[in-house]
Design goal:
It is a single chain. The radius of gyration is 22 Å and the shape is globular. The protein folds into two domains: about 100 residues, Winged helix-like DNA-binding domain superfamily/Winged helix DNA-binding domain (Arc Repressor Mutant, subunit A, Orthogonal Bundle); about 190 residues, 3-Layer(aba) Sandwich (Rossmann fold), CATH 3.40.50.150. With about 350 residues, the protein is of the alpha/beta class. Strands 6-5-4-7-8-10-9 form a seven-stranded mixed sheet, with helices on both faces. Strands 1-3-2 form a three-stranded antiparallel sheet. The structure holds S-adenosylmethionine. The site of S-adenosylmethionine has 18 residues, from helix 10.
């Protein structure tokens, strides 16, 4: 079953089961750590917003040098940088601050491995919106730009800067899963693929880079086209990856041996999910494969905290979206006619469900 990102990676206390008598290990530490988790989270998000890791990727810097480059007030600068050292996001040696190997690879905006787009979106949008989680839980209503009632994508796509940030956030969110899909799926059995709702193109690019025999591309709303094309061209893949503009609710999907939907089904309510699965079925040949990937909730709904919290994020972000288990998705695929289905863990909290027509 789905290997999961366990509670401890979200600073949650481990589950020890009901105890009759609270023992010496029954402390409030885990509760307090989780409750204060937003302090560490927002410190990291501000560091990304300020470009700290991009500056330090050029050269290690002293407290005064980095403070001046980022334009920070002296009052809390030292505490800010040292908190990031204690949170294992920076190193400090002989008075010089530098990135850790991970922050240098993944949080330097100048590197193609940058995954901070998702975290930039968390900082700019999700952090304030999650302040209204309780209201969302009480009303069942989204708490973002569409609080008044429109569709999330219409709201995001009306603002070019927001669109670019959102699409690049998706690349950060799905880079690990995209690499795992490229490495573990039996691509030698197929020749063409389409990533439906592929955003900037992070996943199709990873697949095409790893498998030169494949051609395909992505299907997405028309405003995404130029951003996808620029991204695919930056990897020299324009001849093998094509953009197909359209609306997956009103247009047929392009035909291909493999259809992918990553973080698509969770945006929509159950009827819409079923409709999209049916359209994928219709676009595939006999023997074709449908790949769905998400932070799938484990079948017992007890372990993958990221998948469950992602579902709360869908409450904040969408009119009717919710995340689901591998078993849920396999059931919907089987209703649509897929003859064989299975779930595979990809990386961290992400898993995929595969349906073979
Ligand atoms: C949450 S993002 C997922 C991006 C990408 N698959 C990933 O996992 O990183 C949803 C994507 O669906 C696309 N989308 C939303 N509504 C759509 C529609 N009606 N027709 C086609 N694409 C749509 C969006 O433009 C966006 O790229």
């Amino acid at each position: 079953m789905n290997a999961v990102l366990q509670a401890e990676s979200l600073n949650a206390p481990s589950r020890t089961g009901p105890s009759v008598e609270p023992g010496p290990s029954c402390t409030p530490d885990g509760i307090m750590q989780l409750g204060l988790g937003f302090w560490g989270s927002k410190t990291l998000l501000s560091a990304i917003e300020l470009g700290l890791f991009t500056e330090l990727a050029r050269e290690p810097l002293s407290l005064e040098e980095i403070r001046e480059r980022l334009g920070l007030h002296p009052r809390s600068a030292r505490d800010f940088f040292d908190a990031l050292v204690a949170l294992r996001m920076l190193d400090r040696k002989d008075g010089l601050y530098s990135n850790t190997p991970e922050t240098d690879l993944y949080l330097d905006r100048a590197k193609p491995s940058y995954v901070g787009g998702m975290l930039e979106m968390c900082n700019a949008r999700l952090y304030p919106f999650w302040g209204h989680l309780t209201e969302g839980l009480r009303t069942g209503q989204p708490q973002n730009e569409i609080k008044g009632g429109e569709n999330l994508f219409e709201a995001i796509y009306a603002d070019p800067a927001l669109l670019k940030r959102f699409l690049s956030a998706m690349t950060g969110l799905s880079m690990g899963a995209g690499k795992a899909i490229a490495e573990t799926f039996p691509w030698d059995r197929y020749r063409t693929f389409i990533d439906v709702g592929g955003a900037q193109g992070g996943v199709p690019v990873q697949i095409a880079l790893a498998h030169p025999h494949l051609t395909g591309g992505e299907f997405d709303l028309p405003p995404v086209g130029p951003i996808f094309e620029e991204y695919a061209a930056s990897f020299g893949l324009s001849d093998r990856l094509r953009f197909h503009p359209g609306d997956f609710f009103t247009d047929p999907l392009p035909k291909a041996d493999v259809i992918i939907m990553g973080h698509i089904l969770h945006d929509w309510d159950l009827d819409e999910k079923r409709l999209l699965i049916q359209k994928a079925y219709e676009a595939l040949p006999e023997g074709g494969a449908f790949l769905v990937f998400e932070a799938l909730i484990d079948d017992d709904r007890k372990e993958n905290a990221v998948g469950l919290l992602m579902s709360l994020n869908m409450l904040i972000e969408t009119q009717g979206g919710f995340d689901y288990t591998g078993a849920d998705c396999r059931g919907w695929m089987e209703e649509a006619g897929f003859r064989e289905t299975y779930t595979r863990h990809l990386v961290g909290p992400d898993s995929m469900v595969v349906g073979i027509k």
